[in-house]
Amino acid sequence: MTISRKDLMEQRDLWILLFILGSVLLNWPMLSLFKGGDGAFGNYSTPVYITVVWLLIILSGYLFDRWTSP
Question: What is the number of structural domains in the chain?
Fold first, then answer.
């Protein structure tokens, strides 16, 4: 049995999984991994991480809404 993208996006479990994933990525333990320092972005690593995660959450919500719209 194959499942189409539209059927996948209409499943409530997927939305719950995305909410939990977003909550985990923007929570303290993950944010503490990106403290400012000698990384690729230096002192700006935390704001860059938050911005990238936030944009990915918005983009995934937009795409899922577009796929489930009639």
Answer: 1
Instruction: Look up the domain containing 64 and give its range.
Output: 5-68
DSSP 43: G
Residue that the structure tokens 């499942």 belong to:
3
Averaged pLDDT of the chain: 77
Instruction: Look at residues 27, 34, 32, 29 and name the one whose alpha carbon lies nearest to residue 49.
Output: 34
Taking CA atoms, 67 is separated from 8, 39, 41, in Å, by 10, 37, 35
Give this prediction's pTM. Answer: 0.66
Q: What is the pLDDT of residue 43?
A: 75
| Structure tokens, 3 | 């499942």
Of residues 20 and 17, more confidence is placed in 20
